[in-house]
Structure formats: C-alpha cells, structure tokens
From TrEMBL:
Membrane topology: Multi-pass membrane protein
UniProt organism field: Sandarakinorhabdus glacialis
Domain TonB-dependent receptor-like beta-barrel: 309-721
Protein name per the record: TonB-dependent receptor
Gene3D superfamilies xrefs: TonB-dependent receptor, beta-barrel domain (2.40.170.20), TonB-dependent receptor, plug domain (2.170.130.10)
Lineage: Bacteria, Pseudomonadati, Pseudomonadota, Alphaproteobacteria, Sphingomonadales
Length: 762
C-alpha cells in the first residue's frame, strides 16, 4: 500500500473535518439507500443529459439467473453486443463486450466512482465487475455509449463508460437469502444482512456469495466466493461511506475453436481432462513428427506419427486450462456540503489482486523428458488512488472541479511447472516451485487526471454543458530476469480533452447533441508497448501515439404517453489505432510488435423504447445499426494487409432486441429475444461468423405478505431457451489477417440452461 498517497488523502479528509463538525447540527439526515418500486423504470433513457445515456435499475439484474454478471443486463441496451461462452457472462476469458465497435478494453468502468480499469483479462490496472461486487448488491448501472462523463476515473474510455452503483446499507433491519440450483450442478447462494439505522446514525451491511457451476461441456467447474461489507455514517447533511469487497474466482477454461476444428470436431470440442493418456499421446506424436521432419530418431517410438482420431494437430486441443483470481477492493468516501452552494467529496481506495492463468502445453517438456508441462502467466496488482471533487451552484450554473491520482504497481511472470504420470498440477490454483521461469517483470502506472465542467441552465428549455479533462499516464517496466529483457518508461499525455453538449426541451420531447474527445493511455501489459524486445521498445517509444477518439452524437428523447425512448445518431473517428502483431500459435507466447495502424470511422443509429401497456405489463425494444470500418491498409510482419474499407472485427452491423416484462406484485416474468448479425473474424473480412437469434425467459411468484410463506419468492430462468448452436465470443486467442492464418480464437455459446431460485426476504 502506498503510504504517501494514504497520507495525502487522509490530510485532504482531515482538512474537511471542521466543516463536518459545523454540518452536524444542520438539516435532517439524508440516506443513500436506493429503493426499487413497482413504478421504477427498468430502463431510463437519460432525460436531461447532453449525451447518449441509459440507466438500468436493479430489477434488470434480479430477473437474470442468480450468479450472472451485470453485463448480461447491460446487453439489453442499444448499441451493446455481449457474447459469452457460459450462461452467466462471468467466464472472463470467454466473454466479450463491444459498444459501437469499441471493444471491452476501450471502455471505462467504475464502481461507486472507483476505477475498475479496462477489465482486460490479463489484468494490469483493475478487475472485472463480476469480481468487484456481488451482482445482487448492484443498485443501478449507467451506460454512456459514446462520450463518457468528464468526471469518470478512467483512461480507457474511448467508446464510453459503464458506471455501477452499489446498494447501500438499508435504513431498516433486515436481510435476504437466495438459493439457486440448476443444470450442470449449478449451486448459487447469496445471503445479506442489514443492520438498519442505529442510534448513532450508522448503517451496516454484510453479504456473501457461494457459487459453483460445472462447465456445460468438458470437465471442471467455475467457482466464485465473495464477501461484501459496507458502512454508512450520517454526519449532518454529509455521509462517510466505507466498503470492502473480497472475491476469489476460479474458472476452468473452454477450449478455443477455429473454423477448422469447429468443422471437424464440432461445438462440443473441449479440453481433454480427465483423459490424460490421450493428451500425453498427442504430445508424443507431435514430438515424433518434429523429429521425423528433422530426420532424427523418434523420441517416443511406440506413439507413432499419427494423431489419435479424431485429432489431426497437436493444437486441436490440450489437456487442461484454467485461471485463478483473488481480489480485495476497498474504499473510504466522505461527501458533505461546505456551504449552501458548495459541496465536496474525497475518496481513497485500495485494490490488491493476485492471480494466474495456466495451460498444459506440449511446447515445453518437463524435466526428465515428459512431453507436457504447465505454463502459467502470473499476476499481482497493488493499486492505491484518491479522487477529490468540488461542486458549486452559482445562479444558473453548476460548476464541477475534480482530480484523480492513482499509483499502480503490478507484477507479471511466466513460469513452467513439471508434469508427470503422477503429478498433474491444478491450473485453477496458484502453483509453486516452477522448474523454469522465462521472465519476471515489475510494472508501474502513474495516473494523474483532472476535469472542469459547467452545466448552464440557459432557460427552462435549454441547457448547455461543457468542459474539459486532461491526463498524463506514465507506464514503466523493470525486468528482474528473463527474456525479453526490457526496461524503460513511456507516457501518454493530453491535458486538453474537450466536451460540449446541449439539450433542448419542447414540451415532453427532448433533443440533445454532444461533441467529445478522449484518449486511451498505454497499458502496462505484454499486449501493450512492453510486449517486445528492448530494441523493439526503443524503436517505438518515441514514435508511438496513444489511441484517441472524436465523438459527435445527437438525438431525440421522446415521451409519447405510454411510449418513451430515444433515437440517437453518431459519428466517431477512432485515431492512432494500436495493434499488437503476434506470430505463431497462441500457446507459444511469442513477443508482439505494437504499432499505430491508422484510424477507424464508425457511424450509426440507436433506437430504444419502452411501451407501458399497463401498470404490470411493458414491452422494451431496441435496434442498432453500426457501420465501423478501417480507414487504412495495415503493414506488419506479413506485409501489406488490405484492411481499408473492411468492417472492423467482431462488430455486428445489426443488433435487435425485444422483451416482454410482466409484474403484478405476485406473478412476474420476462421473455426476451435478441438478434446479432454476422461478424468479421479476420481483418480482411474474408472469414465471418454467422448471425444468430437467442431467447431467454424467466417466470416467478411472490407469496403473500402474510402467512408462513411471507417474504418467499420463487423464480425459474431459462437461458438460450430454444437451444441454439452458435459462436459467441471472438478473439479469445487473437484476430488474424485472413482466413489462411486463422488460429483457435472462437468460443461456442452455451446450450439451453435452466435454473430455479428460492428467495426469502425478512
């Protein structure tokens, strides 16, 4: 933990304490509790906001199968494409989110204002929201599809941001217990206890999650353990809030597919575990083929040179692969009014993470010549940060000034662990005693960001909002040992990123327009500028440019009585696109070369609406069209790649979604369908993945508030109701130039899954 940063943040809080003391005798206490009533909208369309924005209520998460990532709820919004190999969307390696053509790591994410980083699987600056908090503890989710707010603590928000707000401790004593059982021996238990408001003005909550689910194919299970604790102390008109969230996440991976393996071996292909004999035989045959080609004696004569049917290549599949992540994320936030026109807030946060991703590889033999080993990439993160904001109300103006500082120390190493007939390491655990380590690197990221904004209420009909932010992010690497040996620093700086927009109200209708510029900082990762040699780094350090985006958008928010919604148009220029070019199969772990490869133009339309047919019945629908294409050809180690004018990879042109929601207080349900059009698998567009339609359903019943079953609720969920076979996530390995170079980089979507849940609130 960074002591200097803690001291500076504590000093900031201490400076505000005299104002806290003065405020204690002021107006009555306020509460941060979020109520979710029957009349609450499932989707809010951003009324009064100058940019495209929607908000989801807790109801949108509660209707999902328990254990689902909140990203599954976000997928119902216009412009959002989410694919996952598992039914919950919580399998991180096989889940992909994109918005308006921007991928998951080009968005910004916060939880109660605390940065979650870019949610990249090979974690370097944060953690996935599925680990950051139990989904049952989320009160709302806000999506900005294009231009994120100026005050968002993110340096990756080229394509917008997601803001998750937690459910604070209740004012009333109570709690809930939820238990779920379903297909593939899924067990999910959530329990929460709220203290209510004590005589001291204190409110506390404690909750926990137990989740185990077998994979829908192959061997192994996904495991989650979470503990969330929070406290809120009312201090006059202000609040002091603290929370700590713990997560332990284990996942057995699903095997990556290629068009070739999908054609030969089908959607059900997975890792070989527990068939160790076949895994050993395949690695022996591969070694024999290599020796035979070099005219050397076969190292394993009895294995021969032909792979066991139905396999034809050592990279068709492997024995096992998995990951482990353990996180502690905590924050302390003080919010209070300094005067009747000036409010202040100060937040300190800390994040600790350790983790590993492992795979049984035939590329490196164990000591003694056994033809398999376990290759791991191991991670550690220590992040400390502080956020301070001032909000002033001066006449028709609301002024905001904010500053964010973060110091992040990370460590990455690549190691190999011995395998034998008697020793088979568990790839979902942190392993010890490697027989070989390729490298150990210390990575640092220093972030400083500020913003200034003003919202001017020109009249009852017109609001103009604008401002700017600036940031400098310095990335450093120190190689302790290994190859490639690389040391150095690189920085991304842009002190002026403007944003300006306006809204105009005409009766119940509202029109908005917005212009914004954003920069994405470099990442301290082997997929960033450090994933090369020292010579390669020196060659790119002074010439590399950070990715930037320019977003212009506008639209109409309509209120036609029972029908409310939004129509938005956008034009985005994504410049200085960075591409890390790899060589060889993914399992080889070869160095990459990072380079700027031109720009992308993205234009489109988003339509979303809610039709309230009756108090208990509503329809929600959306349609999105996106035209994202590369503006330039690309030159890499393979020569000229003709990408100009090609649609960007993993970007569907059409997304259509519709759902029926019913809730009369006792019976409730949801029937939802979504269409995703075809997506490019290669940069040249010569290989695509077909479109698909999926349906999900939920049905539940709340028992009367009196009697033995008071407070009980039952719910049944079906995911992929009609059992559609389809390809979900793309790019799980990487993307490729053309169809002749494609490697294993696709994930099959889960078949139909059914779950039943019992809830008890008290």
């Amino acid at each position: 933990m960074n002591c200097k940063l803690v001291f500076r943040t504590a000093a900031c809080v201490a400076a505000l304490m005299p104002a806290v003391a003065m405020a204690q005798d002021a107006a009555p206490r306020t509460t941060a509790a979020v109520a979710d009533t029957e009349d609450a909208e499932i989707v809010g369309y951003g009324t009064g906001v100058v940019r495209q924005e929607q908000t989801l209520s807790a109801r949108s998460i509660a209707i999902l199968p328990p254990g689902s990532s909140p990203l599954k709820a976000v997928a119902r919004l216009p412009g959002v494409a989410l694919q996952s190999a598992d039914p919950f969307g919580s399998y991180e390696l096989g889940t992909r989110l994109s918005v308006r053509g921007f991928n998951q790591s080009q968005m910004g994410y916060t939880l109660d204002g605390i940065p979650l980083g870019d949610m990249f699987y090979n974690g370097h600056n944060g953690l996935h929201v599925s680990r950051a908090i139990a989904a049952e503890n989320i009160a709302s989710v806000k999506l900005s599809q294009g231009a994120g707010g100026l005050g968002i603590a993110s340096t990756s928000d080229l394509g917008g941001n997601l803001e998750f707000l937690s459910r604070g401790p209740s004012e009333d004593l109570g709690g809930e217990i939820n238990a779920t059982y379903g297909m593939n021996d899924t067990v999910h238990v959530f329990a929460r206890l709220d203290s209510g408001e004590l005589s001291t003005g204190t409110r506390l909550s404690l909750s926990g999650v137990y989740h185990d689910a077998d994979k829908w194919k192959g061997y192994g299970k996904q495991t989650d353990r979470k503990v969330n604790a929070s406290i809120v102390q009312n201090i006059g008109d202000g609040t002091l809030t603290g929370w700590v969230n713990y997560s332990m996440h284990k996942e057995r991976n699903y095997v990556d597919l290629s068009p070739a393996t999908l054609s030969r071996l089908g959607y059900d292909l997975d890792f070989l575990r527990p068939d160790f004999a076949t895994a050993v035989l395949m690695s022996q045959v591969s070694a024999n083929q290599t020796a035979n080609a070099a005219k050397r004696p076969l190292p394993f004569p009895t294995a021969g040179t032909v792979f066991p049917s139905p396999y034809t290549n050592v990279n068709d599949t492997y024995y096992d692969s998995g990951g482990f992540r353990e996180d502690v994320l905590g924050a302390l936030a003080l919010k209070l009014p300094l005067t009747d026109w000036l409010d202040a807030s100060a937040t300190y946060y800390h994040h600790y993470d350790r983790g590993s991703g492992g795979i049984y590889t035939p590329a490196v033999s164990s000591p003694g010549g056994f033809p398999l080993s376990v290759r791991t990439t191991e991670y550690a993160i220590n992040r400390d940060g502080g956020i301070a904001n001032l909000t002033g109300r001066l006449g028709d103006h609301t002024l905001r000034l904010g500053y964010w500082h973060q110091e992040n120390e990370a460590r990455t190493d690549r190691s190999y662990y011995a395998v034998s007939d008697a020793v088979r390491p568990d790839v979902t655990e942190l392993l010890t005693n490697p027989f070989r380590s390729d490298f150990l690197t210390d990575l640092t990221t220093l972030t400083n960001q500020y913003f200034v904004s003003d919202s001017w209420q020109v009249s009852d009909a017109v609001t103009i909002a604008g401002g700017f932010k600036g940031a400098r992010v310095e990335n450093g690497i120190t190689t302790k040992f290994g190859t490639p040996f690389i040391n150095g620093k690189i920085a991304a700086t842009d002190w002026f990123q403007p944003q300006i927009g306006a809204t105009f109200k005409a009766g119940e209708q509202e029109f908005f327009a917005n212009y914004a510029e954003n920069m994405r900082a470099y990442i301290s990762s082997f997929r960033g500028p450090f994933g090369t040699t020292q010579v390669g780094f020196e060659a790119i350090r002074d010439n590399l440019k950070p990715e930037t985006s320019r977003t212009i958008e506008g639209g109409w928010r309509f209120d036609l009585g029972p029908v409310r919604g939004v129509v938005a148009l956008y034009d985005v220029k994504f410049s200085n696109r960075l591409l890390a070019a790899f060589s060889g199969a993914n399992i080889l772990g070869n160095p990459s070369v990072l380079q700027n490869v031109g720009s992308v133009t993205s234009r489109g339309i988003e339509i979303g609406a809610t039709y309230r047919i009756a108090r208990a019945l509503s329809l929600i629908g959306s349609y999105s069209y996106n035209d994202s294409s590369y503006d330039d050809n690309t030159v890499n180690g393979a020569g000229l790649v003709r990408t100009k004018g090609m649609r960007t990879v993993d970007t569907p042109a059409h997304l259509a979604k519709g759902e029926v929601n019913y809730d009369d207080g006792q019976v409730f349900g949801n029937f939802a369908g979504s269409y995703t059009s075809k997506r490019n698998l290669t940069y040249t567009g010569d290989r695509t993945v077909g479109g698909f339609v999926l349906f999900d359903a939920a049905l539940g019943y709340r028992f009367a508030e009196t009697g033995r079953l008071a407070g009980f609720e039952v719910q049944v969920n079906a995911v992929n109701l009609f059992d559609k076979q389809y390809i979900a996530a793309l790019g799980s390995g990487q993307f490729f130039n053309n169809k002749t170079s494609i490697n294993n980089t696709m994930q099959a979507g889960s078949p139909r899954q059914v779950f039943g849940t019992v809830r008890k609130r008290f």
